[in-house]
Amino acid sequence: MRPAEKVKPGQAHFFMAALIKLVLSLFFTGFAAVCLVVLAPGFGTDEREIDPRLSAESIQYLKRQGAIGSIPSAYWGVLQRAWSGDFGYSAMLNRPVGDLIAERYAATAAIAGAGWAAGWSLAFLSAALACVFPRFVFRETAMPIAGVLLCIPSALLAFGVAVIRAPACTAIAAIVFARIYPILSNLFRASQESCYVKAAKARGVAERHIFLSHILSATREQCIVLGGTSVAIAIGAALPVEVLTNNAGIGQLAWKAATARDLPLLVNLTLLIATVTMSINTGADLVAGYFRRSAA
Amino acid sequence: MNVKRRFLSALPRRLALLLLLALLAAALLAGRIAPARYDEQFRDYPNARPCARFPLGTDELGRDRLSRLLYGSRVSLLLAPAAAALATITALAIGLTAGYGGCLAESAALGFTDLVVSIPSLLLLFIARAMLPLNITPMVSVGFTFLLLAILGWTSGVRVILAAVVQARDSEYVRQARALGCRPCTILFRHTAAAVRPIAAGQFWILVPLFLVSEANLGMLGLGVTEPLPSWGNLLAEMQTAASLTDAPWLLAPAVLLVVVLLSLQNVLQSGEMH
């Protein structure tokens, strides 16, 4: 009897596995979020319960209204409402959470997107130029600049941007550049040290050609994954930047919800951001996996 | 010539280390060297400009800024390493448990880590901070702020530590110890933990500046340590109340100090002095 051959999982299997992982991650994130809301001090308590003018029956009625039962049943209710487009009600702003998100997501997407693109372009160009032109002055200066930027808290950077009245996305670009450039630079340098690149150099192949044909193709998957993970960096940086530059986006809304202890709103925003970042990370993993499998 | 060159190349690192030690000493001795207590109000001198009596001026409540900076440095410089130590110990415990707990435990640890890492940490800190009761004292708020950093910060190191645990678990000497009849506890704590210790130490030193920055971010957004206790975060937040920083550049002192400390830490860590 022949031993069973190990079946190599195909693209569809890989895609399904990534999708299931994403759905499960979101499910557990949602459950954890609902647990946090339900277990937070003061949850389900109506201010009217301490009104001395109300009778005992009225207070009991308010308590019954505020009761949510068990956490799983509360989560099931949240999922059902979310499925029909109802994301709850913000006590702080006295408006449906869905409307608040719909009003503000574009502002965050614009500054986080522009900052991410600018930071990535700058980091990629600098690392590429340092790789192609070894004597390029930026090779010696970009790393210290990234190091100094890493030492400045994002809120302080945002404050600086607000003081000099530069666009808010400048701060996000600086934060993304500081985190991406050292990794990209090290990736390219490590690739430069590989035997086939050295052999190509010894044969007199132009640096520009080596970068485009060898280094870039060798580091393509890592760059794609790094691109995905850096979205979370850009969105995370947008939180303090929006607060300190007075930009009416999701980050400012999250900060307002945190200061006003509006946990249902905060949790919905967290779920939204988690969905966006996890979907982009999964997408990046899928694309990188596709290239890896195609190459194999 | 070689000795001179080596000395000059090591000079920035040594200066950085010296500066960090001096700052740590100043922060520890804040009670003795600060001109006033952090909450002492000089009500006749609100918003005073720097002078001989108040080298960094006073804030709007008449409190000496230099004293608050020294006490704030004590809070930040002592509690960030404490939170980093707690986060590293947690990451080590989870890494060891996942490494020896089988495939399921390893996958669960990695899956949970991926989940936490994919959500911006500041947002998680927002939620955790918003869950705290309203009536907490400033001392409790300090404890909670750094405890939250530790609770949410362990995920950044667990992947590296788990990889080291798996490497140690599959190494020849651990296999030999197992074959010689060593107890699982001995293998875990004497052999594996010892092998992972340098990596855990590295993670600790990565987390210290990370927590200093996180506390500064939280403080600037008004969600960190509560008044009147100073920390670098809430001292930085005072800059936002200034009408113009060009008229009052001394307000930048906490920002300059924080950046200098972080740069010094970066310089020292890159050189491996801490290891």
Provide a concise account of the structure shown.
Chain A has 296 residues and is mainly α. Helix content of chain A is 76%, strand content 1%. Chain B starts with a helix and ends with a helix.
Structure description:
- The complex is a heterodimer of chains A (296) and B (275).
- With 296 residues, chain A is an all-alpha fold.
- Chain A contains twelve helices and two strands.
- Chain A has a two-stranded antiparallel ribbon with strand order 1-2.
- Chain B is mainly α and 275 residues long.
- Chain B is 71% helix and 0% strand.
- Chain B is built from eleven helices and no strands.
- Chain B has helices spanning 2-28, 30-33, 65-100, 103-118, 121-130, 138-153, 155-169, 172-179, 184-220, 232-237, 253-271.
- In chain B, helix 3 runs parallel beside helix 7, helix 3 packs antiparallel against helix 9 (184-220) and helix 4 packs antiparallel against helix 7.
- Chain B is globular and about 75 Å long.
- Chain A binds chain B through residues 21, 25, 28-29, 33, 36, 39-41, 147-148, 150-156, 159, 163, 229, 232-233, 235-236, 239-240, 243-244, 254-255, 257-259, 261-263, 266-267, 269-270, 273-274, 277-278, 281, and chain B through 111, 114-115, 117-124, 126-127, 129-134, 209, 213, 216-217, 220-223, 236, 239-240, 245, 255, 258-259, 262-263, 266.
Q: Could you outline the blueprint of secondary structure elements for this entry?
A:
The complex is a heterodimer of chains A (296) and B (275).
Chain A lengths: L10 H29 L16 H11 L4 H13 L5 E2 L4 E2 H36 L5 H13 L3 H10 L4 H25 L2 H8 L4 H12 L1 H25 L5 H10 L3 H33 L1
Antiparallel strand pairs in A: 1-2
Chain B lengths: L1 H27 L1 H4 L31 H36 L2 H16 L2 H10 L7 H16 L1 H15 L2 H8 L4 H37 L11 H6 L15 H19 L4
Helix pairs in contact in B: 1-3, 1-11, 3-4, 3-6, 3-7, 3-9, 4-7, 5-6, 6-9, 7-9, 8-9, 9-11
